[in-house]
Amino acid sequence: ETSNAKDGPSFQAPRHRPNWMAALVCFALGTFLAVALIDYDPVQVGLPFRSTAVGGKNLVGWLGADVSWVLLYSVGISTWLLPVFFLWMVYVALRRSKHLTGTRTVAMIVATITSAALAAMFKDATWASDYFPHGHGGLVGSILYHRLLADALGSLGSGLLLGTVYC
After folding, report:
1. Residue 135: strand pairing partners
2. pTM for this predicted structure
3. Which pLDDT tens digit goes with each residue over 66-101?
4. Which of 6, 48, 75, 143 has CA atoms 20 to 30 A from the CA of 136?
5. Which residues are 133's β-sheet partners?
């Protein structure tokens, strides 16, 4: 009946090749952070962050312990989102490389920051411990919620705003 014997469209959409370099970098960073955070103990951190006496060694060395401490100090419990995001970017770089954009990276950064502020809402910075040196929201969450949003919007308004931005 027709001159075209093919079933489907007459042209094929371009296939985007996997971005192996981005996948390898994200895999290395995600694995490094995951192992560093899983094996982290506050006594592993030495100068300039805590003390001169280091009581243990992280599986990824002093760099893993120091990076874990800095991340837990700055964004608190949201630090655990970073290995998940890096490993998700490995999947995106290999399977859907056209979706590997800067906008997705900015969205992950915004999600990490708003998650830190949400964590700071539930636990005040006075709940600091050795594991969370600046509270569960870290320094970023404490500044964003306690110094900027708490007085201006209250807890309900801040929760609505931060929850909406996070979602």
Report:
1. 133
2. 0.78
3. 899 899 999 989 999 999 999 999 988 888 766 667
4. 48
5. 135
